[in-house]
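Hi team,

Filling in the usual template for the complex we talked about on Friday. All components are listed, including any nucleic acid strands or ligand strings, so the model treats them as one assembly.

SUBMITTER: L.P.
PURPOSE: interface mapping
COMPONENTS: two
RESIDUES: 626
SEQUENCES:
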Amino acid sequence: MKNGAKYYILFTVMLLCCFVVDILSGAVAIPVKDIFNSIFASNSLPDTLQNSFVKDIVLDFRLPKAIVALMAGVGLSVCGLQMQTLFRNPLADPYILGISAASGLGVAIFVMGGSLLGIDMSHPFFQIFGIAGAALAGAFLLTLLIISLSNKLKENLSLLIFGIMAGSVASAIISLLQYFTSAASLKTYVIWTMGSFAGLGKLQLAILSVMVVAGLLLSIYNIKDLNALLLGEQHAAAMGLDVKAIKIRILIATTLLAGSVTAFCGPIGFIGIAVPHISRFIFRNANHKILLPASAFIGAIVMLLADIISQMPGSGSVIPINTVAALLGIPVILYIIIKNRV
Amino acid sequence: MNGKCQEMSEKLIEIKSLALGFNNDGREKVIFENINASASAGELIALIGSNGRGKSTLLKSIAGLIPIFRRQEPHSSDSNSRPSSGSNGHILYNGRMIEEFSHKELSQMISFVASHTERANHLSVKDMLSINCYYKTNWLGTITESDNKRISQALEMVGLEGFEERNSFGLSDGEYQRATIAAAIVQDSSIIILDEPTAFLDIANRFIITKLLREIAHKTGKLIIFSTHDLQLAIDMCDKIWLMASDGFHNNTPASLMESGAFEKLFTNSSMRFNKETRSFEML
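RESULT (copied from the run log):
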């Protein structure tokens, strides 16, 4: 375990560094000292226009964005790990059961269906919670549907097929909405699908945090069951485990994590597949007591890195987070396939 | 034609008038009927039967992995026809019906080793065995010093001493099968059920595994029931044989079964004959 401790010290240092660099990076260059002052000693700063400007950028924009990136990284990676174990499939990701498609459908109905029905979307409630609420509703409705059908979806394969079918149905309905909707609504929807950590208010951040922490705690509680599933469901059932109850618990944790992250940040791909494999590669251990915290740490680091890269330091412009996530995640996935390091 | 075996010791398991079958959308298919058997602690029992007779179904029913087959009332006009539980057989452990056991109680009574246990890369042998300590460990699955000791002892018993930190994924088929048996020992149940534990092994490993099962049964007092197609080894090594033959279920010692000619009924194929001398089948 000495080696493990060394890794966790390294992860903590890397996480802190990435967190600070993420807050540092952006269109406006702010010195490290000013960032620390605005976070830890904002009241003692002289009340100048410059200081208040820096404080606004750091506290209202960059700090929340870095926290969201960290939570998205933790949430998606821990979620991906559980899906890979549950399905015994190295290419399973947080969205394998159609959560992103269901969230997408929720958002599409809200953004594009709302305008088609002539609902006024400028109401403050819709502005703050509309998209996230619709995405969460989509994800949770899908989960409820899967749980209610769990007697029919006993086999993992049927569950997988159901997820893919649910995704296809959602995509079809989304296409239909896209065809009929206005250009402005279509743009709002497309921007949501590109993913972003920015623009979350304090209340939205609080909701996301509570859901991610709840999902994470449930995932930690799932560790023992995830280990029991390592040798297959039949083995777990043979030891007297209630596999159906375990699956439902994993599904709820997954929905809390992936559903909330998708709702507030958009569907972010590849990180959820790649990070659990990076953890396995580093620790060469299948035990979830090691893989779960490792995936959480590495997920947070990778997502912060993705966010830093998406700022394109020095250029002043921002590229969508999904593009960066794909560029970071795909090489890892290809490496896994080529080396078959499952 | 049910073989009756006189047991002096207390019965650990009793199977009474059990039928095996399936219910698919109201269509009932019985694959084997009237199974009566019993077994006591410390016995090694081989379950023999041709393909499709229901060996795996029987073992899974005994292990509580699938519910006992219940027949529907014939020609019942009631759409919610209830099973006629009285005539459909029972499985009892120490006189208690299997349905009365909770998941946890059943795991303390029986451990089940499937014919082919899946593997996970980078799973150490020790972590693999600690999975079977599920009901003994805390919520996080932390193994205690005594669990550690049991794991080491189980590995020693199956001839894998010092394998704790080895990657289970890289073990040979024979070693992996021994590790799964060690995991069943670690579970600390009174009964171990194995579904064709030697199916994927070479002749030497088949012999080693069967001999190992015999040692475990006799040394630890566990009841071990396993299915196999290796008649010769079963006759040589097992205390009793449960034979699923074309004329019914037989439960007796290998010698009695040979004497009674029960093995002749193992296959319905008339071009094969059981040779008592070589203890194997031969073409006519």
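MY TAKE: Residues 1-8, 75-86 of chain B have pLDDT under 50 and may be disordered. Chain B has one domain: 11-70+85-283.

Thanks, L.
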